[in-house]
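As a warm-up, study this chain.
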Amino acid sequence: MKTKLVISVKQGLIQQVAAALQAKGISDIEILEMIGVIVVRPNNISITEVKKIDGVENVEEERDVSI
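Now compare it with the structure written out below.
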């Protein structure tokens, strides 16, 4: 199973970025609009490709956190 990607999005562009991700074939998208983040399970898209989408500020792999 591939790691999820956490995508930070510029304010006001979250729906535009989500639409661009869907156009690239990503269907497993979780939008956290209040904090400007989208979490996706990438099919065959690289971090570099996601970073090229207009409105994306940062992309990183999701990490496990234990408290």
